[in-house]
Amino acid sequence: MGTIPKGFRPSTLASLLEEGNKFHLNSFMQPVLSESNLAFKDLHWDLDNDGVSMSVRPSQVRVSLLFTLWNCRMIPVPGSGLQVLSRHVRFCLFDFKKVLSNIHTIRATWQSKSPKTWTFSPRVTGILPSLLDGDCFIRSNSQFPNIGILFELGITYVRNLTGHQGELSCGWAFLSLFDVNGIAVPNRTYEVAIHGGTPYEKDIEVDPTFSRRASLLGQLVMARKQPKLLVKLMSPASNLRNTLNLLPETLVGPKCYIHLLGFYRQLLADVLLKDRINLQNADLISNPVLATFSDLLEQPDIVDGLRSMWFERERLLKRSEKRDKEFMKQEFVNVYYNSAYPLLYSVTLPDNKWANDHVEISRWKYIAEFLQKTREKGSSLYSLLSPENIHQAFDISETTYDLLGTRRKMTIND
């Protein structure tokens, strides 16, 4: 039957994600109220360089980086009694005491001839699903000296005998972002050792079979057999940095989301800071995009559909149009209404289930067909009115943004 390697543990980050939405991306995207609860701590309105128009005030932070997760090598294979449904890496900002950011998951790919090697960002036809994308961003204004990126390798499995499904950690790696003197580490490729146990345990090996405690000669021989994670740190280009500065101070996620998240924050500022007559008014706000964007971030394949439609639309725009911020925001809203919004409330679209290949393929097929019909007809109205597509009964929450129900309270971590 085979045994589970001694360094494997129940997944720490997966358990945090299951406790609620505290460590989900949609939670960290919401504005944070100040101590007085009368203003926002991280969302401000400011004059543009022309001294006339106004936009979101950029937020400069201590850490604003990109990274590419290349691969994980020499990862032990679990016992034959487990069927592996998914191999993945979850990451977040961490200081060895607590998780400091949201948690993002990257699905790994592997080949049967090399089961101990996990790779990311495979070559695909068309748009790369964000779940498989190893290019990510991190933002933090934390002053903790030992802040870094925690990578937890995990598998979703089902036991062959009982059918029980669960998640195991296959080890973890930590990349410190500052040296002992508080100086940022250089941007380059790092080969990071993978440890066993949980991030709160010390000196646990993933697989004691290849012990680091062997003799000096043995260590040299075994060095290549130690689990490693390969990751490259980079600084964002100036235009991408400008968009990143529109986002909350603490956030991690896929690089391909940055522009979409930037539009959301701009729309959020318009509604909460510019258009409200009384900033202390907490009534429901009629805005379908803001009302549904949090739900959208819980369904990466629909986000990918939105990305695809926006990419196609953006390619057709003139340079002068791309420089017009108000025009771009309105175009984004139009694309959102014709792609993501109707898909979120489709009954025909199968419910999202993690690590279920059949469901994931069915959803991809449905989303692709829906978007293709939208392209052919010029809008989603045809699909919305078609008897072939069934949608949930209308609920007022689909169009109203509840500020008090979605905002984040300021904590000591913020």
From TrEMBL:
<dbReference type="GO" id="GO:0005929">
    <property type="term" value="C:cilium"/>
</dbReference>
<protein>
    <recommendedName>
        <fullName>Nephrocystin-1</fullName>
    </recommendedName>
</protein>
<dbReference type="GO" id="GO:0005737">
    <property type="term" value="C:cytoplasm"/>
</dbReference>
<dbReference type="InterPro" id="IPR039687">
    <property type="entry name" value="NPHP1"/>
</dbReference>
<dbReference type="GO" id="GO:0090251">
    <property type="term" value="P:protein localization involved in establishment of planar polarity"/>
</dbReference>
